[in-house]
Amino acid sequence: MLFLDHLHTHCSRLAHKTAIEFVAPDSAETHMVTYRQLEEAIQRTMTLLQSYGVEAGDRVALQLPKCLPFLYLHLAIMRLGAISLPLNPGYPPHELHYFLEDAAAKLFVADSANRSAIDPLQPTLAELQHILYLDPFSDQFDALIAGRPATNARLPANPATIALMIYTSGTTGRPKGATLTHGNITANLNSLHTAWGWQEQDVLLHVLPIFHVHGLIVALHGALNAGATAVLLPKFDGDDVIDRLISGKYSVFMGVPTMHRRLLDVAQGRDVDFGRMRLMTSGSDRLPDDVFQAYQDRFGYTLLERYGMSETGMLISNPLHGERRVGSVGLPLPGVSVRIVDPEMEQQLPDGTVGAVQVKGDNVCPGYWRKPEKSAEAFTPDGWLRTGDMGVRAPDGYYTLKGRAKDLIITGGYNVYPPEVELVLADHPAVTASAVVGCPDREWGETVAACVVLQPNSRITEDELIAYCRERLVHYKAPRRVVFMSDFPRNALGKVQKAELRRLLTADA
Ligand code: MLC
């Protein structure tokens, strides 16, 4: 049974149970949504979407803060057989234009607060037919759907239908849309349901953003798939999260390492015990050993680290019962095959040898949106997805990640692909060349740094170049630091040696 069918059955079987508790920003107000109310809202939202001409296969982009209308729209889009395209609310027009154009979105639902920046984009987007502006935290959306009849349209019966697109980059710079099908999402939710023992009685404390696989699929859909309750907080606030987690109300919490470290920092001097939590996970970046250890020592909880990616959802996880091994991402999830291969020859390597991580399974997306050559490059001829990560398998089956074959920075759980930042810097008239690298950072894991060679006689400052990037890139991709150089360290072939740059910058910091 596909995820949406499953949700549909909960909506009658668990009609009066709370599916979502939404805590509105800057207020103590909480909105409760039962499974039946969720179903009604989805059906009326489907009618709203149809009034904008949305049909199966259409892309609908959503750039909204974490709010209930986002959830209704996202689920209604997928139920119509259309494709949901969630976007980070922080994307400035420069980046936004690329996503809307590449996805050829038909409808764009945006925050009315951004209207003046977004309106000028429309005439340049041939396939964008409508922009629907919403005031996400008012009653506007409820009023919009209230009078509409419910559409009890068929549920997408075909697992191969694309449900969701998540943009992710690669080594060549511009992001590409990973196309997750109903079958992919369902396969992943089913494996996680089994592996993590999701239960109807679970109450998830949800603090993650909902425009990525982690917050959207693993956490939010995971809870809805189980018929559990998800409490959505608009923003991560360490003190509030600790108070809630020790209140006894919650059983599940999912975070990125930056969040877990912040919880340890804000808990200084407090007696905090998470021993009653059923499941606390960490992902989207390597969990530092000292955070794992401090969690055990100070919070009485052994974090469960897992590994996944946008193209696949979750792949490998430490076990719910059994050893949660420090430094390891655990064992392949049910239905997922993992192999470690020689990066050049792609021959499988023996246990204990570091190589490239490749994966296969019903959770793996079929490819990238309208990029057949990129899709073909991503897979081996026999159908294994090249993850771009390096890793090693221990004889008892546990996997440990050992760096990346791809040029990637992870900051606070968000992926930054250096070529995306380098392309923006290349457009600046004062810049001759740039090389963007990640610097190790206690709080963020890594932070973005740009090494820049300037045109002769240019006078731009570090702050000006950072401000320039912040206008064109979402905040976490903009460099925190710019270092001017006369040239970069290069190898015999003239290729920039990023490892050496990282070493220089780290030593310097
Ligand atoms: C915020 N800032 C960041 C940042 N987040 N800088 C670098 N990296 C980040 N991730 C900046 C802000 O712009 C601000 O800068 C300053 O840091 C402080 O902001 P803040 O208010 O303290 O940050 P906050 O809003 O609390 O955000 C921190 C965070 C957030 C950790 C809660 O980054 C976050 O939600 N991360 C989760 C990412 C995630 O869900 N990834 C999943 C990808 S899916 P200034 O200069 O403006 O003051 C995936 C697959 C998988 O990878 O396996 O999961």
Major sheet, described briefly? Answer: 9 strands, mixed
The helix content, as a percent range, equals: 25-40%
How many beta-strand runs?
Answer: 24
Kindly, what is the distance between the CA atoms of the first and last residues, rounded to a whole number of angstroms? 53 Å
CATH homologous superfamily placement of the domain at 3-239: ANL, N-terminal domain
Q: According to CATH, what is the topology of the domain at 3-239?
A: Rossmann fold
| Ligands | malonyl-coenzyme A
How much is the average pLDDT?
A: 96
Describe the structure.
This protein is an alpha/beta fold. Among the domains are: 3-239, Rossmann fold (3-Layer(aba) Sandwich); 408-508, ANL, C-terminal domain (GMP Synthetase, Chain A, domain 3, 2-Layer Sandwich), CATH 3.30.300. The strands form six sheets. The chain has a nine-stranded mixed β-sheet with strand order 2-1-10-9-11-12-13-14-15, sandwiched between helices. It has a four-stranded parallel β-sheet with strand order 4-3-5-6, with helices on one face. It is built from 15 helices and 24 strands. It starts with a helix and ends with a helix. Helices cover 31% and strands 26% of the residues. Helix 7 (182-195) crosses helix 8 (213-226). A hairpin with a 7-residue loop joins strand 7 (162-168) and strand 8. The chain has helices spanning 3-13, 35-51, 68-79, 93-103, 115-118, 140-146, 182-195, 213-226, 238-245, 257-266, 289-299, 372-378, 418-426, 462-472, 498-508; strands at 18-23, 30-34, 59-63, 83-86, 107-111, 130-134, 162-168, 176-181, 203-206, 229-232, 252-255, 279-282, 304-309, 313-317, 331-332, 336-341, 355-361, 385-393, 399-404, 409-411, 414-416, 431-441, 445-454, 481-484. It is globular. The model has no long low-confidence stretch (mean pLDDT 96). The longest helix is centred in the N-terminal third of the chain and has 17 residues, at 35-51. Bound molecules: malonyl-coenzyme A.
